Batch of 2 targets.
Target 1
Amino acid sequence: MKRNTLFMTFTGAALAILLCAGCATSAKGGPSSPLSPVQRAAMQTKELEGDADTGFAAALSVLQDYGWQIDAVDRQGGIIQASSLRREALLGPEDEWRANDKGYMKSLNKSVKDSVKRGIPYPMWTRWQRLTLTSEPWGKKSLRMRITVVDCGTMPSGAMAKGKKELIPIPGKEQTVVVDDPQLYKRLFQDIQKAIFVRQGLKGKAK
């Protein structure tokens, strides 16, 4: 799906509207094609050793250790929903890759400063992440777990100052981008597996 992304450049006193495509970004910078459903599922899914109850408790503990705020827990259904703390940012999820573009960021920061000088608060993004974890028994001594992390952002409508008198409206926006970071998912699964082994060890000692 394509979204209109408004950005400013004062190099030639011009304003452009860009269409940013896709729901993923390249690690090298710039929009990239989203992963296929099969590729994304493979990255987000892992079979772990341990029973379902121990795995669920271990996952909940690890997410809390990571600093996730637990929003909802359904033990019977094997579902955990969590979110990160919210923060303000100049860029939305779909434009995060532009943070490494020095020219773009210089123009954006100048736009913000110009607006503030004229007493016009520049609308900021509110950014956070949302995580959903599902877990189910997968054989006698294993479980299957899937974790999905999504970058979320909202920005209220506002205006940008251009020149001494002109105001350019900025529409309110909402964006969500699936986080396609193999290392993030790998680290989560590894830590959950370690937590499962620790809990199983403690259960063994208790017997």
Target 2
Amino acid sequence: MNQPTINKPRILTGDTPTGRLHLGHWVGSLENRVAMQSSYECFFIIANVHAFTTRAERPEDIRQSVLEIATDYLACGIDPNVSTILLQSEIPAIAELTFFFAMLVPFARLMRNPTLKDEIRDKGLGDSYSFGFLLYPVGQIADILAFRPDMVPVGEDQMAHLELSREVARRFDQMYCGVDPQTPDKEYVAAGGLFPIIEPKLGRVKRLVGIGGPSEEGRLLKMSKSLNNAIFLSDEPDAVRKKVMAMYTDPNRKRATDPGTVENNPLWIFHEAFNPDVHWVQEAEAKYRAGGIGDVECKKKLVDVLVNLIEPMRQRRQTFERDPGEVWRVLQRGTARANIIAEETLLKAKEAMRQDLLPRSLAFNL
């Protein structure tokens, strides 16, 4: 099976299947993915193995979430004829690379990962998390480097994982490919390295807050299904309206004529993120600060903005929901294409590590 030559820079990103996607996913990465399809060779991974790190006892939920996310991808505008949507568990090379990369990450370095600490805190895991939970950042490195991308579109909360991937790529190239440690990052492959030192592509909103109130420490929580503070890309207009009208705003504002605080107020964070009428937002924020406009009026405006964004996606989603078999076929075709790239990477990695001891041949169905 021959892989077609594509003279485009490559990107890789994806999601752990924990249910349907929401507005935080959209501004954090999804809208970048949709916009970059024509200019990049795109690989979008559904990381279902990682879902087992916190939900190992719920395999049916994970299976359903795979279908939900794949359907959301298609509804958002990811074109499977242009981009490759793949299923992590069906890429054997990722598991093998995870084991090799684990040897290149000191345990103390792994435990300094702030994203791990945030997840342990936000999900209330305490000391009950599995070893697999600690391993999944290394698995993410393999997810990424298996496809040797030039760029990874991510949300801000994934930057720590991405930096770990960059460190492993440097160490592998230096240790096994003889790249001089003084080599500039952009020149690693030209200097003989296997893995490029990937660049991040942040979304225009680094970390979208949820619609609920703050934590006990007064910290606004990011949008998350598990925290029940999300607006989903599949929400019907009435659901959007109910969620927005119940949105947390300025707790010290009792009447529309009271001066209000715009900073760290989810209502205005959302207007700034999603409302294309910048002039209205600026004027309304000034009125809000002076007590000249009420929460209800501003929320109704936000409802209109969000419904206009979400409704076309929801309508497309309904088309794919009527034929889930086609969604699974998209995953099958994309995963088969992705395996060609990942197997090539694994072969090159083993050659560099002097572990290409026996021939290897795997067949994947398109």
